[in-house]
Amino acid sequence: MKIATYNVNSINARLPVVLRWLEETQPDVVCLQELKSIQENFPETALLDAGYESIWHGQKSWNGVAILSRIGKPEEICRVLPGDPEDAHSRYIEAKVNEVTIGCLYLPNGNPAPGPKFDYKLRWLDRLIAHGQSLLTQNTPVILTGDFNVIPTEIDVYKPERWVDDALFRPETRAAFNRLVAQGWTDAIRSLYPDETIYTFWDYFRNAFGRNAGLRIDHFLLSPAVLPRLRAAGVDRHVRGWEKTSDHAPVWIELQSGSPT
């Protein structure tokens, strides 16, 4: 079972890229972020023609999340992160696919920091921590994945000294992420590649991709019930080099089917 996450930076603007990538790599389940599309404009038919059933939560101009599957339609659990009934941002959707609960998230950027946007980011992280704890108490296979907008450690960013005041790398942000992981989650990429330089995002400016001046901000967090099934993980870095592509690259994991022996 191959599961991928991809911040597409506008699903309709990047649809040719997304369809090319899906045909090339054929993941079983895909989590998308930053759809930048209202609910009615999501390209459900084009994705269905590519073999993927979808659930999605759109929003005009920004945000938006979706879960696609070619192994049965995702069984939607919720489309909002609990904890703030007044939060209207489309940043979380959760579903069950093949007996695995998958939370697809697009965590707030938080810049400029300090300020109201950073405060919102920290509140959102607090809600995610609370929800994460609730998910773990179920003792079932759970995956939290998406664009976390968190650089966990210095190895996850090119020239970390330039990011010390950025909301993605501030101590408060990293401390909150560490609290989440400490509940019992495992960072899939780092569990398999603890010391390698791996990035998932490269800015469009200053030839960042060509210089490999990137960040690792797209993550897979695995619950203890699913961790033993982890067999592989990686980043489809080459997709970032395609024409009219997103500034993120797809990230993926492969799980052994069913319970490990």
Automatic annotation (TrEMBL):
Transmembrane segments: none annotated. It comes from the Bacteria. Its cofactor is Mn(2+); Mg(2+). Mg(2+) binds at N7, E34, D147, N149, D247, H248. The active site is at Y106, D147 (proton donor/acceptor), H248 (proton acceptor). Residues 4-248 form the Endonuclease/exonuclease/phosphatase domain. Gene3D superfamilies: Endonuclease/exonuclease/phosphatase. The record marks D218 as: Important for catalytic activity. One of its GO terms (biological process) is DNA repair. The keyword Manganese applies. It holds the Pfam family Exo_endo_phos. GO terms for molecular function: DNA binding; double-stranded DNA 3'-5' DNA exonuclease activity; endonuclease activity; metal ion binding. The record marks N149 as: Transition state stabilizer. Probably binds two magnesium or manganese ions per subunit. Keywords: Hydrolase, Magnesium, Manganese, Metal-binding. The record marks H248 as: Interaction with DNA substrate. Belongs to the DNA repair enzymes AP/ExoA family. This is Exodeoxyribonuclease-3. It comes from Parapedobacter composti.
